[in-house]
Every structure is written in structure tokens, then in C-alpha cells.
């Protein structure tokens, strides 16, 4: 991996995340005149500024062809050497587990997320109190990779960044994605990548919580103009005591709704939903 080691740590992290994400290493066909592989990444016009931000790290190693809306590279030995780390013999893509040792900077998480992730918000509307609680989650839509590889990526992120992702079922691809399930991990993730994405304002809608909150406020004020908007706090995601678990079970048996239980236990709607699912699996 001599060529990869010649890149700066930031370049290594951005490039590896990009190939796992939206990018690809082009194939070499038998009758091709090319001796080496190259990099290619298609994008829509709405993400043009993000791609300009991405290539700014690479000193002309990567460039944009505007007409085809692609990030590209020349054919280089670097991509020929990288190709077997990302692709099986049949051409299917896989996560380069041996290369994750390079991926310890916030830029890795940031690019992986901006390529294939979403900031999803679950609203809990309490009409009695006229309060809307917003519970944010980070989703990494990596369903094209096998479960076992996602588990290794999950462990890598936990070990090096301290963020807990859970495997979650998905109807497409190979059936699994990664997502945060606690508010604490969601905000910890956004805090980690903040230093890497500060110069990429076009993606603030999913990397900057304050900016996203402004968007959410505008949306909900049109529907419920006299409601208060709150973000679910870390405290609302605290562990359940034995007393709370028993109370949840008792209320469920008596036919209480999820919202009634949430109000009684001072928890969010979705916190009760997830906890009840856990109890049912036990």
C-alpha cells in the first residue's frame, strides 16, 4: 500500500470513505488500453458543492467533469492496488476491513455519512401539552454490504470514535443498515464530525443540528403554530429502572396507549416503543 501511505491522513480517510460510499474504482476490461484502474463518483447537481468540497482535499488527484456530473481520477497505480481491497473477484463490492486502521479521523465518519447517511427525526406530538418532541437518529444506508462486514465497521466506529450504532433491518440490498438508537450517540456523532464539515455549508441540513432545527421549526410551525418544539434530551434516553419496566408492563397489560405510558414515565413516545420491543424479545 505504498501509494496510499503517500497520501495525507485526511486524504486517506476521505478517499476510503468515498469508495465505501458513493464512489467506485472502475473495472479494467480485457481489451482496454488502460494499465491501471481509476476513480469515479456520480452525483446530482444538488450535491455539486459537496463534491467540490470533497475534491479540495486532493490537489488535483480527483477532479470534476461537469457535463457528466462525475468526480474522476486518471488511471493510477494507487487505484489498481486499492481495487482488491474493495471488490471480490466477481466484481461485488465489500468493506475493506484491513484498511479501517487508516480510518481514525472525523473526516472518515463525515464523508461516509454525507455520502450514504441521513439525519432522521422522529416527532412525538403531545397535543395535551402542546409540545412536539424531536428525536434525531443517524442512519448509514450501507445495505449493499453483508451483515458480517457491517458488524466489523460497527465495532470500528465504537472503538475509535465511541459512537454506538445498531444493526437494523432494511428491505433492500443485503438486508441491514447501521443506525444510532440513543440521542446521546446521535449528538456525539454530530459533534465528532463538526470539525471536519465546518467548511461544507451545503450539507449543514444533515450535519449541523442548529441549522436542521431551524428547518424543522419552520415546518412544524406551519402545522402547529402554537406548539412548543423540543429536542429529546440525553436524560430522556436514560436507562429504565426496574420500577419503570414493571410499570410499563402493568400499563400495557391494562391497555394503556404508548402515549399514556410515555406521559406517565416522562419518556418520549419512541423511547417507550423501543423499550417495549426489547421487553417482548426477552
From TrEMBL:
Xref: InterPro entries: Homing_endonucl (IPR027434), LAGLIDADG_dom (IPR004860)
Keyword Hydrolase: yes
GO MF term set: endonuclease activity
Keywords of the record: Endonuclease, Hydrolase, Nuclease
Residues in Homing endonuclease LAGLIDADG domain copies: 14-177
Pfam families membership: LAGLIDADG_2
Name of the protein described by the UniProt record: DNA endonuclease
Amino acid at each position: 500500500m505504498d501509494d496510499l501511505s503517500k497520501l495525507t491522513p485526511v486524504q486517506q480517510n476521505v478517499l476510503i470513505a468515498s469508495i465505501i460510499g458513493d464512489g467506485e474504482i472502475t473495472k479494467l476490461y480485457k481489451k482496454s488500453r488502460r494499465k491501471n484502474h481509476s476513480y469515479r463518483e456520480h452525483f446530482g447537481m444538488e450535491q455539486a458543492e459537496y463534491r467540490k468540497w470533497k475534491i479540495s482535499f486532493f490537489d488535483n488527484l480527483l477532479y470534476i467533469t461537469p457535463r457528466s456530473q462525475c468526480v474522476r481520477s486518471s488511471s493510477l497505480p494507487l487505484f489498481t492496488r486499492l481495487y482488491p481491497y474493495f471488490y471480490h473477484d466477481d466484481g461485488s463490492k465489500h468493506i475493506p476491513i484491513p484498511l479501517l486502521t487508516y480510518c481514525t479521523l472525523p473526516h472518515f465518519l463525515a464523508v461516509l455519512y454525507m455520502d450514504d447517511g441521513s439525519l432522521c427525526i422522529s416527532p412525538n406530538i403531545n397535543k395535551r401539552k402542546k409540545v412536539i418532541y424531536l428525536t434525531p437518529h443517524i442512519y448509514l444506508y450501507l445495505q449493499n454490504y453483508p451483515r458480517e462486514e457491517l458488524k466489523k465497521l460497527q465495532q470500528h466506529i465504537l472503538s475509535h470514535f465511541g459512537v454506538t450504532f445498531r444493526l437494523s433491518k432494511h428491505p433492500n440490498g443485503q438486508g441491514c443498515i447501521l443506525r444510532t438508537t440513543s440521542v446521546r450517540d446521535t449528538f456525539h456523532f454530530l459533534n465528532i464530525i463538526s470539525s471536519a464539515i465546518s467548511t461544507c455549508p451545503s450539507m449543514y441540513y444533515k450535519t449541523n443540528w442548529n441549522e436542521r432545527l431551524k428547518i424543522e421549526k419552520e415546518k412544524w410551525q406551519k402545522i402547529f403554530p402554537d406548539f412548543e418544539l423540543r429536542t429529546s434530551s440525553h436524560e430522556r434516553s436514560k436507562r429504565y429502572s426496574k420500577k419503570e419496566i414493571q410499570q410499563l408492563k402493568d400499563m400495557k397489560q391494562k391497555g394503556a396507549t404508548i402515549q399514556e405510558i410515555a406521559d406517565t414515565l416522562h419518556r418520549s413516545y419512541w423511547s417507550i416503543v423501543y423499550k417495549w420491543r426489547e421487553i417482548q424479545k426477552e
